[in-house]
Automatic annotation (TrEMBL):
Transmembrane regions: 298-318, 324-345
Organism: Undibacterium hunanense
Keyword Transmembrane: yes
Protein name as annotated: Uncharacterized protein
Keyword Transmembrane: yes
Length: 402
């Protein structure tokens, strides 16, 4: 099996159920921060957590979009319906959280057993078993087979077979193109941005007359929980529809170290965000802090559910020993970040792009594997970004560095 590219959130219902619960807490945490910013009675700001990061971002963001910040503290739209923020009730439950308590909302949600009832099935865990005698998780010995099992279990939106010069979508199954292992281990895996094309720029709103100054940034995470950040950078100022810009040299968006201790196969995921500079207000930096803030919560939740499913003692196994578990964590975080972006855009109505293809991902069966044909560079892939009538297409690829 060769390295395999995937795009979009997982469609596995176990993964989505976890993401929905986590997003519910994140949503209220952001709204709590907004209420504090707008001096809503009986609200306070915890010393740490999502609320504190959201408060710092929104305090800066209100300079460019005060009305959006005001809307967040009152009535907002989630999952296609309007929600009264004042009661601080988690969606799908009767649990009410206290906006004035010293504990952050994740701490309150755990204490109220909001995450109880979630589960990870044996299918989601890709055949993972627990050996009571050795007190070790039992995983498939063949790394190529195991990588295929993980891809099937997590059911990402799109999976690509790796063939020279092509990117063939494989629906509902892992790509299994044969490829002989290379003799030299790769040191790093890079996500490279190659070009960006303005299919349709902004321009319909009176505030959008003029050029599009497009900036980019985001995060990367691997199944060993190596979190890398892509600081915000300028791509290009687009002056007309249909304009294509070659990023020269190709931009290394994130780079992952492949030499760390831990089991193979490994998954690598990245969320790429675009924003029109004039309205950004620190949005990318906030998403990076959000990734940090929810990462520990998701690891704790996923590990507990997995250990319960296979009959192990919670905490008995390091995350790095179970490839599918680290990938599940990344899939949940990626989905939550996507939900947050979509929800904030629906409320803010601002020039920050949304992409249905986030996160972008790659699964490597082992450190010495190559892309099909022994290549160090994957085929080119395309990611779409849109907001309102505006639409951009980005070309990207993955590169192994030896």
């Amino acid at each position: 099996m060769t390295a395999t590219c995937f795009e979009g959130v997982s469609t596995n219902p176990d993964i989505l159920a976890m993401a929905d619960r986590v997003f519910g807490v994140v949503r209220l945490s952001i709204q709590r921060a907004t209420c504090v910013l707008n001096n809503v009675p009986a609200t306070s700001l915890p010393q740490k957590g999502v609320e504190k990061d959201a408060y710092d971002f929104l305090k800066s963001y209100q300079v460019v979009n005060r009305s959006a910040v005001t809307r967040l503290s009152g009535i907002s739209r989630t999952s296609g319906r309007r929600v009264d923020i004042g009661d601080a009730t988690l969606l799908g439950s009767s649990i009410k959280l206290n906006h004035g308590a010293p504990d952050n909302l994740f701490e309150q949600a755990r204490a109220n057993k909001y995450f109880d009832g979630l589960k990870l099935s044996s299918a989601t865990l890709a055949g993972l078993r627990w050996d009571a005698a050795s007190k070790k998780a039992v995983v498939t010995a063949d790394k190529s087979v195991q990588a295929s099992e993980i891809l099937n279990a997590l059911a990402f939106r799109r999976v690509f077979a790796d063939a020279p010069g092509t990117a063939t979508v494989v629906a509902g199954a892992a790509a299994t193109t044969a490829s002989a292992p290379a003799s030299v281990n790769a040191r790093e895996l890079h996500l490279k941005l190659k070009s960006l094309k303005a299919i349709r720029r902004f321009g319909w709103e009176i505030t959008d007359w003029g050029n599009d100054n497009i900036y980019c940034g985001g995060d990367g995470l691997d199944s060993l929980q190596q979190h890398v950040k892509a600081g915000q950078f300028a791509i290009h100022t687009f002056k007309r529809d249909g304009e294509s810009f070659d990023i020269r040299p190709d931009r290394t968006f994130v780079k992952f170290n492949l030499g760390g201790a831990g089991a193979w196969p490994r998954a690598y995921m990245a969320n790429v965000f675009l924003a029109e500079k004039d309205v950004d207000g620190g949005f990318v930096e906030f998403l990076q802090k959000l990734w940090d803030a929810i990462g520990a919560e998701v690891i704790k939740l996923a590990t507990s559910l997995a250990m319960s499913a296979i009959g192990a003692v919670v905490g008995a196994v390091a995350l790095s020993e179970i490839p599918v578990l680290g990938t599940i964590v990344g899939a949940v975080i990626g989905a939550v970040i996507g939900y947050v972006v979509g929800w904030l855009l629906d409320t803010a109505k601002d020039d920050i792009f949304e992409s249905p293809d986030n996160p972008l991902g790659m699964i490597l069966p082992s450190q010495n594997f190559r892309f099909n044909g022994g290549r160090l560079v994957s085929p080119d892939y395309t990611q779409e970004f849109s907001v309102g009538s505006a639409r951009y297409l980005m070309t990207y690829y993955w590169q192994l560095v030896v």
